[in-house]
Amino acid sequence: MNPRQRRGVLLMGVAVLGAVAVFLLIAGYVSDIGHRVGPMTTSYRFTDEVKKYAPITADDIEEVELPSKWLPEAAIQSFDTSRGLVATSDIPAGAMLQEGMASSPPELKPGQSEIAILIDAETGVGGKIQTGDLVDIYGTFSVSSTDAQGGSEKADQARVIVSNAQVLAIGALQKIDSPDQEEFRQTEVVPVTFALDREDSLKVTYAESFATKVRLALVAPGTRSQPPGSNGVLEGSQLLKAGRG
């Protein structure tokens, strides 16, 4: 073997030793990182924003592999989208799926039934009320009465029809023709479905048929409202005095 061949063999040996050294360094680094990071586990991340009480579908979440030590303690590691669970609150995109974020959709209690009425989209709902919320249902009426001289007069009233009614569903926006004095105009309405007992269902049906306006008032989460006054009725004169006061 001539000197040139010996130099070649020597260089090849050095290259092999260098490759082995680099491999050992990389393996040691990976092992150290793996030791620091810990075992990997499966979890779920939201790819899109999910509104409160909206169903959580397979399109809303993605499966991700993350180190167990980096996951929140309440992170869910097994989730079946076919169960029909819904979001318990508004969930932003990128959030990790955790316990308490999903639950069964609102259901009817014993003695309740579903009843849907049309509510003015602008004044009655306003885009703030969502499925699962508790609302107070108000109605304004024009009531005829007899004065001291035996004549007929009309008095305006605002009534609490039902307190703490649970919203089961909010339908799509619709346009209907409604009388406006001498001409007809189109009004935007939304069908809202409530979970009510028989008595409250009758009250809501009456209000939808005879009230001048039916409005919804959102009840603060975690609270229950109390109707104003002894009977939940305010006369027009009382309202004017309250406004001046």
Automatic annotation (TrEMBL):
InterPro entries per record: Pilus_assmbl_Flp-typ_CpaB, RcpC_dom
Organism: Kineosporia succinea
Domain annotation Flp pilus assembly protein RcpC/CpaB: ranges: 108-218
Keywords carried by this UniProt record: Membrane, Transmembrane, Transmembrane helix
A Pfam family recorded for this sequence: RcpC
Signal sequence segment: none
Xref: NCBIfam families: pilus_cpaB
Sequence intervals crossing the membrane: 9-30
Protein name: Pilus assembly protein CpaB
Region ranges (Disordered): 222-245
